């Protein structure tokens, strides 16, 4: 399965089929993913190491280990790790397309578009 290093951490694809994809995502302490949307998939995040700082449509909350959140298609979202710890979560994607080019970045700490 696919593994990818990113400036904020890494992810590994655990399962992929025509209607879903499952990833384990690790965010480095103090790092965060881009604030983004997707046009062809929804996501469900389940926190396995944290706590995690999650922003959904401009509302920020902290999720503890064992908690989860749903992100609908087209909803702006971001995952961040506090300075004190990294975050690991399981991401279940459902939809019609799971490619990395279905990311519309609204903000990004690393200058990506």
From TrEMBL:
Which InterPro entries does this one have? Man6P_isomerase-2_C, Mannose-6P_isomerase_type2, RmlC-like_jellyroll, RmlC_Cupin_sf
- Signal peptide positions are none
Q: Which residues form the Mannose-6-phosphate isomerase type II C-terminal domain?
A: 6-108
Q: Provide a GO biological process annotation.
A: GDP-mannose biosynthetic process
List the Pfam families hit by this protein, alphabetically.
MannoseP_isomer
GO MF terms here are: mannose-1-phosphate guanylyltransferase (GTP) activity
Name this protein carries in UniProt:
Unannotated protein
Give the species this sequence originates from: freshwater metagenome
């Amino acid at each position: 399965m696919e593994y990818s290093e990113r400036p904020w951490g890494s992810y590994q694809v655990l399962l992929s089929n025509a209607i879903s994809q499952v990833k384990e995502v690790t965010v480095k302490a103090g790092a965060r993913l881009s604030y983004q949307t997707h046009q062809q998939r929804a996501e469900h995040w389940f926190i396995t190491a944290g706590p995690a700082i999650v922003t959904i449509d401009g509302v920020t909350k902290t999720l503890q280990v064992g908690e989860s959140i749903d992100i609908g298609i087209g909803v702006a979202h971001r995952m961040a790790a506090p300075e004190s710890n990294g975050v690991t979560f399981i991401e279940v994607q459902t939809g019609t397309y799971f490619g990395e080019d279905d990311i519309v970045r609204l903000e990004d700490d690393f200058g990506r578009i």
